[in-house]
Amino acid sequence: MASENRRVSLTAADVAIRVARKDLPWLAALPAQAAQQVLKQYHRAWLNCWAGRAGPPAFKARWRTRMSIDIPQGRDLAIQRITRTWGTVKVPKVGVVRFRWTRDLPVGKHADAANRVTGARLVKEANGWHVVLRLHTEVKEPAPHAGPGVGVDRGIAQPLALSDGTFREHGPWLKPGEEKRLRRLERKAARQRGAHHRGTPTSNRLRRTYDQIAGVRAKAKRRALDWQHKVTHCLAEEFGVVGVEDLNITGMVRSARGSVDIPGKNVKQKSGLNRAIAGQAWGRTVTLLEYKLADRGGHLVRVPAPNTSRRCSRCRVIAEGSRESQDRFVCKAPGCGYIANADTNAARNVEYLTKQEAPQDIVGARTWSPRRRAG
């Protein structure tokens, strides 16, 4: 196709994948347009890497990634609504498939040049196959959101603490019986792995156990995503500016195991904290909140994270021992003595930094923390 050190053009790569479809049966089984779409995404990833916008794309094995097939042309889908809750879509090499109709779609007489379905993606999840439809819709520029501003602190005990003194909480994602079943399935998988020899195919029993574990975890993920959508929707509706900490979550969940020469400390405790942080999905919460604020004319402001939990939000002083416990903050600075919930204090520090970081035309003409009470 080309020498190893030369950047390959999209045209040359397209010729290569046509040849590969003749040599690889599993690649030939895919629709040609789906393979070309994957190639375009791969080429775009390298363009972003060469331009310094992202790192190089990483290799993904077929059996270790979420299975998905792209249908890039919407005109071939032939979407029809057959009942109030069901519709049909035409999938290449499969035929007409029924799917659950969950929202209004611009199809039939409702479609035009400004509102139409441009493509789809078939995605295999733990609970079955899903179709994700891409829409082209023209929307008006939203009017500026006139709501108040607020600072938000993300945590473990309190998922979201607001600078107005309120919290956004949730319960466990799994019920006690589901937690018990998950632990039982994980023990069962461990026993089955013990009888599995390296280099031999995974047994059907072990594969079935893995599928059951994935189903339970997928249920927890759907509940978490549902809560995140609801709470970010409410925040975007109420507040015009939301400040959050610019956290390096990848660094926060890095293992503390260390190396052979320099072993880590408190590895088990750090592993538990990493699981708790990953379970809260802080990054996804901010991603959802950012686009929902933009749709409503609001703004998300990221502020530096250091010392927001150690600094007093009243006197702005960092005094040793002020955070007495996980949820109690008592300022030890002379003449202050401010008392507040530790997460609320951090959220108010985030609010203060948001006022300093954001442009004045965004943060100036609005109220902040409307229900805030002195500690």
How would you sum up this structure, described in words?
In the C-terminal section; belongs to the transposase 35 family. This is Transposase. Residues 282-350 form the Cas12f1-like TNB domain. Pfam families: Cas12f1-like_TNB, OrfB_IS605. One of its GO terms (molecular function) is DNA binding. With 375 residues, this protein is of the alpha+beta class. It has three domains: 1-46, no CATH class; 69-137; 149-172 and 219-363, Nucleotidyltransferase, domain 5. Helix content is 38%, strand content 18%. It is built from ten helices and 13 strands. The chain has helices at 10-23, 25-28, 32-50, 176-194, 204-238, 249-252, 267-280, 282-295, 342-357, 360-363, and strands at residues 68-71, 80-81, 86-91, 95-100, 115-125, 128-137, 149-154, 160-162, 167-168, 241-245, 299-303, 328-330, 339-341. Strands 9-8-7-10-11 form a five-stranded mixed beta sheet. Strands 1-5-6 form a three-stranded antiparallel beta sheet. It has a three-stranded antiparallel beta sheet with strand order 2-3-4, with no helix packed on it. The longest helix is centred in the middle third of the chain and has 35 residues, at 204-238. Residues 371-375 have low confidence and may be disordered.
